[in-house]
Design goal:
TIM Barrel; mainly beta; hydrolase activity, acting on glycosyl bonds; 57 strands; 12-stranded antiparallel beta sheet; Beta-galactosidase, Chain A, domain 5; 12 helices; single chain; Immunoglobulin-like; 7-stranded parallel beta sheet
């Protein structure tokens, strides 16, 4: 019989002995080196050096899964290496043309029970990154991943929130408070800087943040979800490493991301955006005011207007046509829940595309969960399908998505101008932190913000210093026009760049960025210091003589000729700023300004302006005020209709010359309700700096009646021939949920519940077709019991556009009020709810049991 000691010896022989300490290095050129070491206990650690200097101390690697712990007792299997050499083109960012080179090593390990773990490490001259791959499917419950900095390393950190809008703090690696910090996180280590972040996150994984214990120099990876099922590979844990200019100019986050999914990017067009919400919160619900912003954009060559929260489907198509005729495209705001499901995305994105909208701003995602990243995968694919550019607000930070989906123009994820508390010190941190990892929709140049310690020229310079594919001017036209020198400069600033360089800077103190577009260089400076004079090198100009046009504090404009051996000296006020534009000096050249795009006015008249029936003959006449070229005039059949008639083409149309065509639109009757029948002209014009076609469209509004209602009919069972709503869609047989369709509850007024009815949010309305077939309408109206704060609504009934019944102000808790109306001979019946006078919030208006008595 074996002795007990012999049995123990046998069991011990079956357990793999710990491996001797081992290590591997990865470096592209010797400049930056990643180190992976293995301890005698089989754990892994990751460190970084630059030029032989220690930048990141060894810190743990590994993952824990539901099937095994891959942070210890790891057995090394093999190593493979390769050079990653990629060239790719961006539509946004610090430069369009990219060349990414890195050395890559894959280290394969086996854990207890045979579970496999691959650690993939990349090193380039501007940083390092690593990710894990799991050859077998498993659910990850956490990472051991961490980064360790010297305790006294200065740090600029962002206390975590899922919208990344907290105020960044200046501290040290060990002196930072205990808690979570959001990416990107910047540290200064001797002569070097380290920016920690992540790249290539998608719906297969969750986002992460850094967790810190007080007094420690270590920051560990904390996942947004406690379990991440089925991950085949994790995101890249990324450290951008170098001097401050290297960090600021790095494109490592994009270099690590998945390649573009779009073969054709010709429709993607960054640009300046006129935007009304910040300076006038109620203006997005005012189509007349939006047209004034469009006129401002058209005069100043800004290609876009964003209509933010408050727009209504009843007028957006007409405003979009107004804008496009002036060379301006419309962007529309959406709450993300309105685009949550495949059905909602398909319906709403197809609709706005049919209106001629060029892109969308999607807001309030506020999450780094795996589910939300899966939604980002879906919304980027859906918007690309409809060739709609997209901007994310209330969002996570960029993690390489703009490379994968080049139609993503920007992300917010910053404490921007909308906080209405602008601080120069905070502004001078963003170029070295948030804006390093991708486009940043700060919404700059907000003179309207009264609580700011910045000068006007500091505000102007943010438009240039901050990179964003769509750059939203945050102030109203009148405030820009009151500062003509500022507006002149803004009109000249591109949003697409061929090169970007840091000329001078220190987080929290100052930032001077030089960007090139074509043959012109643009230099923007931000100061968070007392009055000073910037003294900047111009070696980036390369050679020759250059005209330098500088606008500085006090709206002083300096014009001089310089060369690459000269210095650019610019006095600034306390918390001041400046913008310099440099262009090759030529005989007689006195300015670096280029022409601002202004589209010739045209007239497109259609007859008849409106019609009723299933066959409509339309005549269109198109006349320009100036000579234009490549003219095309044609009709397009909307869904459910067909059209016959010519497509008219002219190489040139003189000023005052008219092009006329006639078309017949026909429907078999399935296109019930109101439909816009469009005729459009497209053209180009000589000297257009954008070299883009202009689209001018007019419509004939046509109505095809649905069948008349019969007998006793619930209004909620009828088709709506027109509808609008303050928040979300109008709901049938439920209250207004404010976001997506079908998110309401059972209608309830004063404690009484109703199975049938219409839930809307003031201001809202629905119109149904009676066709003269009904005689009575009855309903019970009131504010739904679901609101948690007082709401107030005024209800009206309109017969063929005429008010025939209404209530006074109805408030929460008032109970249902009966409405009875004689609708004899009425063709169109409209039910309307308007704000009771104290703002539209909480105005959930119910039309309970709305019944028609019909023949």
């Amino acid at each position: 019989m074996a002795t007990f000691s012999a049995i123990l010896a046998l069991l011990a022989s079956l357990v793999p002995a710990p491996q001797p300490a081992a290590g591997w290095t990865v470096s592209l050129s010797g400049k930056v080196t990643a180190e992976v070491t293995q301890t005698a206990a089989g754990g892994l650690a990751f460190g970084v050096t630059r030029g032989g200097r220690r930048v990141l101390e060894p810190a743990p690697l590994g993952v824990r899964t539901t099937t095994g712990d891959l942070t210890k007792n790891l057995r090394f299997l093999n190593r493979s290496t390769r050079i990653v050499d990629e060239r790719y083109t961006m539509t946004t960012g610090k430069r369009l043309q990219r060349h990414a080179r890195s050395a890559e090593t894959t280290l394969a390990f086996a854990g207890d029970g045979g579970a496999r773990l691959n650690v993939i490490v990349r090193a380039s001259d501007d940083g390092v990154a690593y990710r894990y791959t799991l050859p077998s499917a498993a659910t990850i419950t956490g990472e051991a991943s961490a980064f360790t900095l010297p305790a006294n390393a200065p740090a600029w950190l962002l206390p975590y929130s899922p919208n990344y809008e907290n105020t960044r703090v200046e501290t040290t690696a060990s002196g930072a408070a205990a808690g979570d910090f959001g990416f990107p996180s910047l540290f200064s280590v001797g002569a070097d800087y380290v920016l920690l972040t992540e790249s290539d996150v998608d719906g297969r994984y969750s986002g992460a943040r850094l967790a810190h214990a007080a007094g420690s120099g270590s920051y560990s990876i904390k996942l947004a979800d406690t379990q991440v099922p089925g991950a085949l590979s994790t995101p890249w844990r990324t450290a951008i490493v170098g001097d401050l200019a290297t960090v600021t100019g790095s494109t490592l986050v994009d270099d690590l991301a998945s390649p573009s999914k779009l073969a054709d990017t010709s429709w993607i067009r960054p640009g300046k955006v006129a935007w009304s919400w910040l300076s006038e919160h109620q203006s997005p619900s005012d189509p007349a005011r939006q047209k004034q912003y469009i006129d401002f954009a058209a005069r100043n060559g800004w290609p876009y207007v964003l209509i933010d929260e408050g727009w209504d489907a009843s007028w957006v198509p007409e405003v979009t046509r107004y804008a496009r005729a002036r060379g301006v495209d419309v962007l529309l705001w959406f709450h993300w829940t309105l685009l949550d499901t495949p059905e909602e995305r398909e319906s709403r994105l197809a609709q706005v595309k049919s209106w001629g909208v060029a892109g969308v701003k999607v807001d309030f995602m506020d999450s780094d969960s795996q589910a939300r990243f899966a939604w980002y995968d879906q919304i980027t694919a859906a918007t690309a399908k409809y060739r709609l550019m997209v901007n994310f607000h209330g969002a996570t930070i960029p993690r390489g998505l703009q490379r994968t989906w080049p139609h993503v123009m920007s992300f917010e994820a910053v404490r921007g101008a909308e906080q209405f508390r602008t601080r120069a010190a905070t502004n001078t941190m963003f170029p070295f932190t948030r804006n390093v990892v991708g486009s940043m929709d700060y919404t700059p140049t907000a003179f309207v913000v009264s609580d700011r310690d910045t000068t006007d020229l500091h505000e102007v310079a943010t438009f240039l210093v901050y990179e964003s594919g769509w750059q939203h001017g945050a102030d109203k036209p009148e405030n820009y026009q009151a500062r003509p020198e500022a507006l002149r400069t803004l009109d000249q600033l591109p949003t697409v760049w061929d090169e970007t360089r840091l000329l001078s800077g220190r987080p929290g103190q100052e930032a001077v960025i030089a960007r090139r577009s074509g043959e012109r260089w643009f230099v923007g400076g931000l100061s968070a210091q007392a009055a000073k004079t910037f003294d900047l090198p111009l070696g980036f100009l390369g050679g020759g003589r250059w005209l330098s046009d500088t606008l500085r504090d006090g709206y002083v404009r300096d014009l001089r000729t310089v060369g690459p051996a000269d210095r650019l000296t610019v006095p600034t006020a306390t918390n001041g700023g400046f913008v310099s534009i440099l262009c090759p000096a030529k005989p007689g050249r006195t300015s670096c300004d280029e022409p601002v795009r202004q589209v010739p006015r045209t007239t497109l008249t259609l007859t008849p302006p409106s019609a009723e029936g299933t066959t409509v003959d339309v005549t269109g006449s198109f006349t320009p005020d100036a000579a234009i070229t490549d003219v095309r005039l044609a009709a397009t059949a909307p869904k459910g209709w067909s059209v016959t008639g010519p497509t008219l083409n002219r190489d040139r149309l003189a000023a005052g010359e008219t092009l006329t065509g006639t078309w017949r639109f026909t429907t078999a009757g399935q296109a019930v309700g109101t439909t816009d029948l469009p005729v459009a002209a497209t053209f180009r014009f000589p000297g257009d700096p954008a070299r883009l076609p202009v689209h001018v469209e007019s419509v004939v509004q046509t109505f095809v009646p649905p069948p008349n209602p019969a007998g006793t009919t619930q209004v909620s069972d009828l088709p709506f021939i027109a509808e609008s709503n303050g928040f979300g869609p109008v709901e049938r047989d439920s209250s207004n949920g404010e976001a997506g369709g079908g998110d309401g509850r059972t209608l309830s007024i004063g404690g009484t519940r109703y199975a049938k009815g219409i839930g809307m949010h003031a201001p809202g309305s629905v119109t149904v077709w009676l066709g003269g077939a009904c005689s009575t309408f009855t309903a019970n109206v009131g504010v739904d019991d679901e609101v948690t704060s007082p709401g107030s609504v005024t209800f009206r009934v309109l017969a063929d556009g005429r008010p025939v019944a209404g209530t006074g102000v109805v408030r929460s808790g008032d109970g249902a009020q009966p409405v009875t109306v004689d609708v004899t001979g009425v063709r169109r019946l409209t039910l309307e709810a308007t704000d009771g006078g104290d703002g539209k919030n909480f105005d959930h208006a119910d039309w309970a049991t709305p019944v028609l008595g019909c023949a």
